[in-house]
Design a protein that fits this description.
The structure is a single chain. By secondary structure, the protein is of the alpha+beta class. It is about 25% helix and about 40% strand. It contains 14 helices and 66 strands. It has a five-stranded antiparallel sheet with strand order 1-30-57-56-55, covered by helices on one side. Strands 60-66-65-62-63 form a five-stranded mixed sheet, with no helix packed on it. Strands 2-29-28-27 form a four-stranded antiparallel sheet.
Length: about 950
């Protein structure tokens, strides 16, 4: 056991033994370019807060990083920030003619408060503040000219006689290094000389730190390092590997770590990490991936990650994991398939050939160009399975021992010490070793490529095709030939594509595309392997030698896990970010160098893993609430975690977990006991369209290993909309009541109107009927009046006619008397004149006109109708018709016509013929039909 432990230490010490080696072996680090943190390119100082957040003094402002998200803040005057210190919950910064602090307000927003205008007329003039540190409950700001002490709201200024180069706090003492007057120690607000020697005149002292209990380590920019013995006040040069290096590379920053290691940041060549003796363990520079070689500031974070501010970018160097990367920056190595430590030399088999490392330099073995599949030490000899065949590696040279191409895998035959079976492109090949000599021959005419080979017992093996197929192979007792080569495709195998065969605790196990299966000998069939499916996962595969007590698995998310088959302990997990996009796809592999040292084989190199080192758990911390917004407006953060939000508003909750590593966030929203977790795309949860009610929102940090942090729970209440509260209901009740009352009144009014209209209409109908009745009565009255009038006029007409008849009769009687007494007239002319007057009086036209007018008043339209129908009637005919219409007798009409009765009858006869009347038709009746 002591020998094994020695070999572990030897390997690590060998890999990191010299300065040349450090050019290749580096810890994992991650770069953050300008495009990621979105500020200026120069990062002058870095400081980690207690909560895990990183703050960076940038040439454009203040940069904040919470592990997932970068934030950027600018000073009011938008000037450069040279220094930063995160102390408790306050961030102090120093700038040009400006220093102050940043603190979160109630809404979680970082707000700046200046301190540099502490006294009137004492504002720093043309000063830049390059350093900030904490001492004795005070914050100290250093420029080249002055030292300012900020304590309890007051600021004191200390001005030394010479330019201040740096300040260091060691064992609660503040050491102030100047250009010409050496080093001072601060006592209260007084600088007392500490070291005043000519060796430090015009020497830029970078830092002072403890070397041990009695000695101080003093580092300079170009003069190397010094050791100061406090016991005898002696100063001596520190002869060390790093001291000589920084003289050439110009030291700019220094930090001693808790484990005794030291970090040196240079202007010309990146970062050096050394042990206590100054021997370089790692060198990280632009050649092996750092964005820039000029280090402006650095600090060790809470997760033992070294944050480095560069002249162009920021880097995070992981100093806690015992995972060392070997990177080939030349591009010669290619994808590494196997690594082995043989006779204190590390050999690397890749897709470009076989290499070995010597003093950190990568060396190619001539004649090995092509694909190297495997490296295996057998009986003290190193075998190389190659695309062109199988070779022995002797003194870094190759000797071919087999012409069979594609030496994928070689296994020792159980119970046979010197016989081995190899899987090749052309099938199975037997190897025998005798007195150091190797012989090989093909095991039969099977030419399928065999990539995976596992022995079930002394004469049975399982072989898997490189792409498709699984076979059970039976050998004869002497291994001279293959007895059977049986295809197990149809014996319960889920899929025969890309099958991998492993032997785990005497079980023959198969990794298929759908999960794990195993061979059940009693039924000669392949069945599911529930134990491995549950413990490894259906998507996980073994990428190490399956016969070892400790296995290494890799799942679909590239989670690398070390699992012990003999001890019930938590295995080592490699975070995905350490190997992201560097695993050799479909050929992921781990090579075991000894009991504790492994290599994870990668593109352009490998990762060296010490599995006995103390395993750091990626502790996931409970998320914290950063911001709460309503419709993009910040609101106060409620430390009781109970929030009330208006209805129908967009809610945004930003969280962080700076002390967690390699994490992402999940959330669950519940109104009951059931929780359904959803992955968040970033650190911000956007909520909208939530109905009113109470909700519990759960947040947690999660990593790819499936580990979760404690939950952060906040309670939110979505207030009901304005139309769902008591006042609204009361108002609505009033409104509805008013509406109902109004509608009721309107209904009553409408019904009243209907009744009124009906009444009006009935009245109108009654009135109309009454009017009609009245009109009828009026018409009747009029008709009666007309009748009466007609009757009167008829009577008048009749009277007139009778008067005319009487007058004419009288005139006729007078005429007759005159005729009888003709003889009594002496003058005949007188007699004749009297007769003419009588005749004229009887037939006078004026009298007829008067009669005709009165007749028309009684019988209007009579003559018109009669004339229209009988236009040939004479004036005399019309008179006779009028008289007949009046019902006058013939004897009454004759005098009116001044004719005899007989003459009138004759005229009537003629009139009847003019009227086209039949003999039996009465003339009087005919004329009565006319109006």
């Amino acid at each position: 056991m002591q020998l094994k432990h020695y070999k572990v230490l030897f390997l690590f010490s060998f890999f990191m033994a010299s300065h040349n080696v450090t050019a290749q072996y580096i810890p994992y680090f991650k770069n953050y370019a300008l495009t990621e943190y979105n500020a200026g390119n120069q990062n002058w100082d870095v400081s980690g807060a207690d909560n895990g957040k990183l703050y960076v003094a940038n040439d454009k402002g203040l940069v904040e990083f919470d592990g997932l998200k970068w934030n950027f803040y600018q000073l009011p005057n938008k000037t450069i920030i040279r220094s930063v210190l995160a102390h408790k919950d306050v961030i102090y910064t120093g700038s040009y003619e400006e220093f102050g602090y940043w603190k979160k307000n109630s809404k979680g927003k970082l707000v700046y408060t200046p301190l540099s205008n502490f006294k009137e007329n004492e504002t720093p003039s043309d000063e830049e503040f390059w350093q900030i540190f904490f001492h004795d409950d005070a914050i100290l700001f250093r420029s080249f000219s002055n030292l300012y002490i900020y304590n309890n709201g007051e600021i004191k200024r200390i001005k030394p006689e010479s330019t201040i180069l740096s300040c260091s706090v060691v064992d609660n003492n503040v050491y102030v290094s100047t250009v010409r007057n050496g080093i001072f120690i601060l006592e209260g607000d007084i600088l007392r000389p500490f070291i005043n020697t000519s060796e430090f005149v015009d020497v830029k002292i970078i830092s002072i730190d403890n070397y041990n209990k009695e000695k101080l380590l003093i580092t300079t920019a170009l003069n190397g390092c010094y050791i100061y013995n406090k016991a005898n006040n002696r100063l001596e040069i520190w002869e060390s590997n790093i001291s000589n290096i920084i003289k050439e590379q110009q030291l700019n920053t220094f930090q001693a770590l808790k484990n005794g290691d030291m970090v040196f940041g240079t202007i010309k060549n990146g970062v050096y990490v050394t042990n206590k003796s100054g021997h370089v363990k790692y060198h990280i520079n632009k050649e092996n991936g750092l964005l820039n070689n000029t280090v402006l500031g650095h600090e060790l974070g809470s997760n033992n990650n070294l944050w480095v501010g560069l002249d162009n970018g920021i880097a995070e160097i992981d100093l806690d994991y015992n995972h060392t990367l070997y990177n080939d920056t030349s591009g010669k190595l290619g994808a590494v398939y196997d690594v082995i430590s043989y006779r204190n030399t590390l050999y690397l088999g890749s897709n470009t050939g076989l290499f070995y490392l010597k003093e950190g330099d990568l060396n190619f073995i001539e004649g090995s160009q092509g694909q190297v599949w495997s490296l295996k030490e057998i009986n003290g000899q190193l075998l190389c399975g190659h695309n062109d065949g199988t070779y022995l590696v002797e003194n870094n040279k190759l000797r071919k021992i087999s012409e069979f191409t594609g030496g994928w895998v070689i296994k020792k035959v159980p119970e046979m010490k010197t016989t081995f079976i190899q899987g090749t492109y052309g099938g199975l090949v037997r190897f025998d070793i005798s007195e150091g000599k190797w012989n090989s021959r093909h095991m039969g005419n099977k030419t399928i490529p065999i990539k995976y080979l596992v022995f079930e017992d002394a004469h049975t093996a399982w072989a898997a095709h490189a792409y498709k197929g699984l076979f059970r192979v039976r050998f004869d007792k002497s291994y001279d030939s293959i007895v059977t080569f049986e295809n197990y495709k149809n014996k319960g195998l889920w899929s025969d594509f890309s099958i991998k065969v492993h032997k785990i605790k005497n079980d023959i196990c198969f990794k298929t595309n759908r999960g794990w299966q195993k061979y059940e000998a009693l039924i000669d069939s392949i069945v599911p392997h529930d134990l491995l499916n549950n413990s490894f996962g259906t998507d996980a595969d073994i990428i190490s030698e399956s016969g070892a007590n400790e296995l290494v698995t890799n799942n679909a998310n590239d989670k690398i896990t070390f699992l012990s088959l003999t001890e019930d302990k938590k295995g080592l997990n490699l975070p995905n970010e350490l190997i992201q996009k560097r695993l050799v796809v479909d050929a992921e592999s781990v090579s075991q160098l000894n009991d504790s040292i492994y290599t994870l084989n990668l593109y352009d190199g490998f990762m060296l893993i010490n599995n006995t080192a103390k395993k750091r758990s990626d502790t996931l911390q409970k998320p914290i609430i950063e911001h709460v917004e309503i419709d993009k407006t910040l609101v106060d953060i409620n430390h009781e975690q109970v929030y009330e939000f208006p209805f129908n508003k967009s809610i945004s909750i930003s969280i962080s977990s700076p002390l967690s590593k390699n994490h992402f966030f999940e959330y669950a929203i519940t109104t009951s006991d059931a929780l359904n977790w959803y992955k968040m795309d970033n650190e911000r949860l956007e909520l909208s369209s939530l109905s009113n009610g109470d909700y519990s929102i759960h947040f947690r940090a999660t990593n790819l290993s499936g580990e979760v942090s404690p939950e952060k729970i906040i309670q939110i209440t979505i207030l009901p909309p304005w139309y769902k509260n008591s006042l609204f209901y009361f108002i609505m009740a009033l409104i509805i009541g008013g509406i109902v009352y109004g509608l009721h009144k309107r209904k009553i009014k409408k019904e009243q109107k209907i009744l009124h209209d009906k009444f009006v209409k009935e009245q109108e109908v009654l009135l109309k009927e009454k009017t009609i009745e009245n009109d009828k009565k009026i018409v009747q009255l009029k008709n009666q009046s007309l009748k009466n009038e007609v009757k009167l006029k008829s009577k008048q007409l009749a009277n007139t006619a009778m008067a005319l008849v009487k007058k004419n009769e009288s005139m006729l009687e007078i005429k007759n008397e005159l005729i009888r007494n003709k003889e009594g007239f002496d003058n005949s002319s007188t007699y004749k004149r009297l007769l003419r007057k009588i005749d004229n009086s009887i037939g006078h036209e004026d009298e007829w006109e008067i009669f005709e007018y009165n007749f028309n008043q009684v019988h209007e339209e009579f003559f018109n109708q009669l004339k229209a129908k009988h236009p040939k009637l004479t004036h005399k005919d019309l008179k006779i018709c009028a008289y007949i219409k009046m019902n006058l007798l013939t004897k009454e009409i004759a005098p009116l016509m001044n004719v005899s009765i007989r003459g009138l009858e004759t005229h009537r006869y003629r009139l009847k013929r003019k009227l086209n009347l039949e003999n039996d038709k009465s003339l009087s009746e005919y004329l009565l039909d006319f109006k």
